[in-house]
Every structure is written in C-alpha cells, then in structure tokens.
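2024-03-11 09:14:02 INFO worker-7 job=invfold-0412 stage=load source=structure_tokens
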C-alpha cells in the first residue's frame, strides 16, 4: 500500500481552481496514482447540503455562523472521506480546505485568522495538507471571471471589492508563513502552463 497524500488547491474565486483540479487529477492518474477528487464545502452528502446553504445568495448568514458552518462541513468531510481514503494509502486532490476559511472568514469577514484556525483545528483533528497549491490572481480579474460564468454568482462571490482584497492579502501572508507547504502558481498563465507549474511543485511527492 502506498502513502496517502492530501493535496489542496486554494485561491480567490475566479482563479481557476476547478480547471486546475480536473487537469491535475487526470495527470496524476496518467502516472498511475490512485487519486480521488473532492471539493469544499462538499464531498459527502451532509457537507454538500451545507454548501447549498452557505452559497445561497438569498440566505442571510452572520460571519461567525458562516465560519462554523464551513468548519462543520469540513469536520464531516474529514471523518467520512478524507481520513479513511488517506488511511487506505490513496491520494486526495481537494478543491479548498482550511486555508480558505482562514482567508475568507478570518480575513475577509474580519473574524481573525487565529480564531478561525482554532475552530478548524478542532473540526479537522489537526489534519494538514502535504502540499497546497495557491493560485494567485488580481482580485479584480477574479471577480471579472466570476461574473462571466454561465451560472449566477453565489453569496460570497457577490461581495464587495474590499472583501476580496483582504482575502488576497491573507493568502499572501499564509504562503509567506509556510513556504514549504504552500506553493504559489500564477493563475494568469494559460491552463496548460498552470498545470505544468503545479506538477513541478508536487514532483517531490510523486
């Protein structure tokens, strides 16, 4: 049995996380790596229901409640999917994880990164990614990309410019604090170039 690995993809809305996730999981499978692709919030039934709630633009949810809902969805995902899959020696490619809450709720909602980190440490049992790929993009470009999608923007995507500027700054701080785990990728590059860069950043784990 091989060693299970948890690779997470982070970044602002519109950075291209889903595009990278799909191409990267295909590239890993081509290398005969047994990898499962999951997303947050979601991945298992209870967490998918929380996803519907927190993303509903018609729903009013306070900042603390939002942070706790994301943590609750994450706790269920860890218990039901992440922990058993990793224990079985498989890889997981996860679209968002704790860093998203640190940036979006800790900084974006002004709850404090330390406070949000604590509730997520409890939620995850201390589970940390082996590698995090952070797609960096100018917040205004990310917002433009989000608006151009076919589907309507969700509750968070509809926030104001300052919200996304705080998130981008928080992501930069997190990357500077953990350069070994968090590797930054230029999201303005063509998808094929982003994929190539991502593979380079996880080469040591392959």
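2024-03-11 09:14:09 INFO worker-7 stage=emit residues=206
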């Amino acid at each position: 049995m091989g060693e299970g690995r948890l690779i997470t993809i982070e970044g602002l809305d519109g950075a291209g996380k889903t595009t990278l996730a799909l191409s990267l999981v295909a590239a890993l499978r081509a290398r005969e790596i047994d990898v499962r692709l999951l997303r947050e919030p979601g991945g298992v039934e209870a967490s998918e229901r929380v996803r519907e709630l927190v993303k509903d633009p018609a729903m009013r949810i306070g900042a603390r409640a939002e942070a706790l809902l994301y943590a609750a969805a994450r706790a269920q995902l860890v218990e039901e999917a992440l922990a058993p899959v990793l224990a079985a020696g498989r890889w997981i490619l996860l679209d968002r994880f704790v860093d998203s809450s640190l940036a979006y709720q800790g900084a974006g909602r002004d709850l404090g990164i330390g406070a949000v980190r604590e509730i997520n440490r409890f939620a995850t049992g201390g589970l940390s990614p082996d590698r995090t790929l952070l797609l960096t993009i100018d917040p205004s470009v990310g917002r433009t990309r989000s608006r151009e999608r076919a589907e309507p923007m969700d509750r968070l995507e509809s926030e104001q410019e300052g919200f996304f500027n705080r998130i981008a700054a928080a992501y930069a701080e997190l990357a500077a604090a953990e350069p070994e785990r968090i590797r930054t990728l230029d999201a303005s590059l063509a998808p094929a170039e982003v994929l190539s860069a991502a593979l380079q950043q996880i080469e040591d784990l392959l």
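2024-03-11 09:14:09 INFO worker-7 stage=report msg="The mean pLDDT is 93."
2024-03-11 09:14:10 INFO worker-7 job finished
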